[in-house]
Amino acid sequence: MVVRIDPCREHDVEAALVGDALASLERPDAVLRVVWTPGSGDGDSIGFVLVTPLPGGFDEMRARGIELASLQLAIGAATRNESPWLLPGVKSTSYAVNMAAQAEARRRGADDALFLSLEGIALECPTSNVWFVEDGVMHTPGLELGILAGVTRDTLLAAAAEARMDVEEGAYPRTRLAAATEVFTSSSVREVMPVVRIDGAAVGAGRPGPVAAAMQAALRRAAAS
Q1: Strands 167-170, 137-141: parallel, antiparallel or unpaired by DSSP?
Q2: 32 and 140 inside one domain
Q3: Which of 35, 53, 71 is the C-terminal boundary of a domain?
């Protein structure tokens, strides 16, 4: 379903679109995406909902953990944040670079890619945020680096606060992640995915850790509520 929307009614129409999409599902495990476009430029916009089957194998990947391949972007962290035409932090429908990065990661024998700035600062993965645990503290790249402020990211920040676990946001070199006790990624589709290797080297004990498991459980509880 595609509708033209008055900006004042976007929330109501979005709820109706999602409701119609959910009612049409023949199975509960599906991916639902709400897409907004600028429209004609006269103050209206166009919205539509895409429903696709949920890819399989995520539980198995979560149980064994995944490997990331570091891919360097040809720009610095500060440049990325100060150049809005590069669309940092924007979830757009253009996934060309992200898909190419994931293809390169698979070519290298990894499951996903980890974007690094020109200075070697860890940013995010093509379709997920990245986290690491160091001395019992959760760390994640800060939004000032131009990364996507995802809903799942916010959910994990809230879950960590509820569990009284310290969380710090900042600019972290890849070496900090490589030396961490745990590393994991988060996204609305893959959920929390433990990282057990980066560029061929084991992370921590080389197996999924307890913090990733706790965050995955918290995410499932939030989704159920």
Answers
A1: parallel
A2: no
A3: 53
